[in-house]
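Exercise: predict the fold of this chain.
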Amino acid sequence: MAHSKVSQRQEGSLGILDCDLNFGMDSYESAFHAMEELVEAQVSGVAFNFSNTEYINSRGIHLIILLVEIASEAGIALYVYGLNAHQKRIFSMVGLPDRLTLVEDEQEIQ
C-alpha cells in the first residue's frame, strides 16, 4: 500500500497543506515535513485542503490535532476547506472547529 502524501504550497503569506485521497497516520511523515516548512517560512495562516480526500481515519484526526498544536504554538491562524458532510461532523465531534476556521476555499481566506 502506498503512503498517503501531504504536500505544501504557499500563496503569499498563506500556506496550504494539500491532502491525499486517504488521510491517516501513513500521512505522518509528509504532513509533518510540510508543516515544518510552512512554520519556517513564517506564514501567517495555514489551510488544510481536503478537497481530494475521501477518507480521514481516527489516526488521521489525531494527526490533524498534532499539526494544529504545532501551528498554534507558532501563532499561525488555521483554516480548513474541502470537507464533506461526514468529515465536518467528525471535526465537530472532536472540537476542531474551536481551533480552526472552516471556509469554502482558499480564496475565502485571502
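Check your answer against the key: The chain has a mean pLDDT of 92.
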